[in-house]
Amino acid sequence: DAGVIQSPRHEVTEMGQEVTLRCKPISGHDYLFWYRQTMMRGLELLIYFNNNVPIDDSGMPEDRFSAKMPNASFSTLKIQPSEPRDSAVYFCASSLVLAEQFFGPGTRLTVL
Amino acid sequence: AQSVAQPEDQVNVAEGNPLTVKCTYSVSGNPYLFWYVQYPNRGLQFLLKYITGDNLVKGSYGFEAEFNKSQTSFHLKKPSALVSDSALYFCAVRDRNSGYALNFGKGTSLLVTP
After folding, report:
1. Out of B44, B105, B106, whose CB is closest to A103?
2. B88 contacts B109 by C-beta, under 8 angstroms
3. Counting one residue from A and one from B, how many pairs have CB atoms under 8 Å apart?
4. B3-5 and A31-38 strand pairing
5. Which residues of chain A make contact with B103, given a CB cutoff of 8 A?
6. For B88, which residue in chain A has the nearest alpha carbon?
7. Is-contact B77 B66, C-beta < 8 A?
8. What is the DSSP letter of A26?
9. Residue B104 burial (CB count, 10 A)
10. Are B21 and B81 in contact (CB under 8 A)?
11. Cα nearest neighbour of A105 on chain B
């Protein structure tokens, strides 16, 4: 298996633009997690899904952030409109129930 | 509520010496505990986990961790450090009664010098 795949690896955009981050989990995993990592706040859980259904989105910063999982092999995290304070590395991870999470390589987002 | 603390921002150790990276946790139920490592510009990689059973858990790359329920600790150890072990290490906890999300510590930067 190729592991968790994220795209793009780097994204530079201007304030106010829409940003879409993509994730393909490991096949067969039924949990998918979105995290954000910054120097100031460390690693924060944004939202997670079980069998494509959002379970906990309490970590989503505000309404500008949204996440979807239309099927078991694809998820998106969208920021609209983006702001400079959204600059961070965004990680997607997947797991089987009760097992360790496997992380993707991350998307480094820079909002100018 | 669940939380995890890594009291040291950085740990320095000479190559060949034993290393310890500390982690304490606070959960309302029985914990699942994890250690991850992050190399520069990479995602987190799973090292080891404690779910139940033997308190000493062995993981990847020669690392091990000891679950201590009375001290609510899960320190990461390695008998002989390598320069290539230099990285950022994260402890994480999941409360069995609080869903499947992990709560990560702030990370400890390990620097192994030749």
Report:
1. B44
2. yes
3. 46
4. unpaired
5. 45
6. A42
7. yes
8. P
9. 21
10. no
11. B43
For the segment B43-68, what is each residue's pLDDT rounded down to a tens digit?
A: 999 999 998 888 999 999 999 999 99
Length of chain B: 114
Reduce the secondary structure of chain B to three states and give it as a string: CCEEECCCCEEEEECCCCEEECCEEECCCCEEEEEEEECCCCCEEEEEEECCCCCEEECHHHCEEEEECCCCEEEEEECCCCHHHCEEEEEEEEECCCCCCCEECCCEEEEEEC
Could you tell me how many residues make up chain A? 112
Residues of B in contact with A93 (CB under 8 A): 43-44
Which member of B43, B101, B106 has the closest CB to residue A105? B43
pLDDT digits (tens, 9 = 90+) for B70-89: 999 999 999 999 999 999 99
Residues of chain A with Cβ-Cβ distance to B99 below 8 Å are: 55-56
